[in-house]
Each structure stands twice: as C-alpha cells, then as structure tokens.
Write a structure and sequence with these properties.
Blueprint lengths: L1 E7 L4 E7 L5 E5 L5 H10 L3 E6 L5 H4 L2 H8 L3 E4 L3 H5 L1 H7 L12 E3 L4 E4 L2 E7 L8 E5 L4 E5 L2 E2 L2 E2 L9 H12 L7 E4 L5 E2 H7 L1 H4 L5
Parallel strand pairs: 3-4, 4-5, 5-6, 10-13
Antiparallel strand pairs: 1-2, 2-3, 7-8, 8-9, 9-10, 11-12, 13-14
This protein binds zinc ion (ZN) (2 copies).
Amino acid sequence: MFIHFEVVEPFAENSWLIGCRRTGRAALIDPGGRVPELLARATAEELQVEQILLTHAHIDHISGVAEAVEATAAPVALHADDLPLYEALEQQAQMFGLDARKPPAPEHELVKGQGIHIGDLQAQVLHVPGHSPGHVAFWFADRRLVISGDVLFAGSIGRTDLPGGSHVTLMDSIRRVLLPLGDDVRVLTGHGPETTVGQEREHNPFLTGLAGL
Ligand SMILES: [Zn+2]
Ligand SMILES: [Zn+2]
C-alpha cells in the first residue's frame, strides 16, 4: 500500500494519494488542492489515479476536485447527504473569501457498508455524520488503517458549528463507529498528524471527558 499526502493551505488540509503497489491503481482522497503535486507523485510511483473519493464536501476537501477530474477523468464518489454542500461550493468559497472552481457532479454515491477497491486494496465505507451529514471514513480493515476526514483528530474532534453539523451526532459516530475499530488502528486525519484509536481513546480530552472542564 502506497500512502502519500500533501498539506493544502489555507486550511492545512491533508490530501491523500493512496495506491496499490502490485496493480498500479490509485485513488485521490479529499483532493483539496496541490493536485499537480499529487499527480506528479503518482506518476513517479507509476500509479494511475482512477477514482476520487471524498470523506465529505467542505471546501477544503473538494477545492481541487475540478482540477483532478480534468487531469485524470476519474469519477468522483461522495455520500448523498453531502451533495447539498458539494453543490454549494461557490457559496462556501464566498464565506471564506476564496475562489473555487465548480467540480462536476459525483458519478458514484458512497453508501454505508459499501466496499471500495483500489487495485488489491480493500476498504469499507463507514458513515460517520456529525461534522457534516454525509461524512464517511474509509476503513482498510486488513491494513488496520482508517482515513477519517474531519471526525477525529490527534487531541481534538471535528467542528460542528457549520451548517448540518451536530456535536451529539459526531460524538455518537466516534464512540459507535470509530472507537470499536480497535486501539491499534492508525487514524489518518483530515488535518494535522496521524494518530491511533488507542491514543485518542486514552488522551483525547473530548473522549476522556476533560474538554469543557
Ligand atoms: Zn470539514
Ligand atoms: Zn477539513
């Protein structure tokens, strides 16, 4: 399994290039930008980007989708509950005083429990709403690794003050879906450094009950 990420400003968002070494097949996950760098790396690793997978449709995770589709012709996959956010990219951009290019409509709908294949790599779609209604995580069970977007961070959790956000729902997603994956599981997050489920279960102030004291 090949894993590479680029940090995209101004939100310090992690954009992922995930590839299967044996087959040369690859996916971009949350290409918020730095698309030329991601694709150059794919070329250097002899990987072919064949799909664009989105954990959710906030501007920082989808700003590079239009450019990525143009360069690769890869189909975009998104959970239906985040489609309104996806279609409102221009309004999201205005909110932050940024420019954004409207991406083509997603060709595939991500559904809870669905299997994703990137060459020999297999992942399962986990629905983890709260930060946004249609937020998903990609669970590579046999690699003990989850790409979790903006649900859980090293020492923090996703914000829930944006439209469609819910703190109660987010905490439920973390406790019911992410924590049971197991303490050894690597968590590749949408912002900041990677962590593990065990590290967050033990030390994340939002999970230990210390936050807000
Ligand atoms: Zn977000
Ligand atoms: Zn984000």
